[in-house]
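Appendix B, example 12.
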Amino acid sequence: MKRIIALTTIVIAIIFLNACSTQEKVVKKESQFEYVHLGYITKLEDHRALVVSTVNSETNPNKEYYEAIWVSAIPSNLKVGQQVQVKLKGNIATSYPAQAGAEGVSITTTQKPEGADTFQDEVIRKALLDKELASVDVLVIKEVSYDVNSDSWTIRYKEAMLKDGILEEKSIVVLDK
């Protein structure tokens, strides 16, 4: 009986102490993070740009995944073919391609190799005049290179929305005019 009385007294004391204590309101702050996306602009439509990374971010060696984001709130001076670094703001919709707003966009300096008449971003725009290349939903530009001997550019690319696994690499040659 003494045990029951002692146990009851302890339980009442705990309840009393909890009721009398001041409660602190815990405010959980949303963590702020910056996400920067680097890639080529492969499409422009409705005041937004499709920016596709050139780097495979899949850790499985038997698969490939290239981040692609439709970026809204972009500057009006952007062009297809430019390589850009986009600082994203707000929520990122996790569809594929993803969707997000831009807080800032910086254009990577375009290259014009010695002997070439055309800048790299202009070559990409010319290549996209090709119907097959223009029909690619998510175009991953792997490499753009200039060959001084043939006076031509080669663009190596992949189509990211085909299937899981390793994506077939293709190339297109554009004359330097």
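The two ends are 101 Å apart (CA to CA). The CA atoms of residues 85 and 164 lie 27 Å apart.
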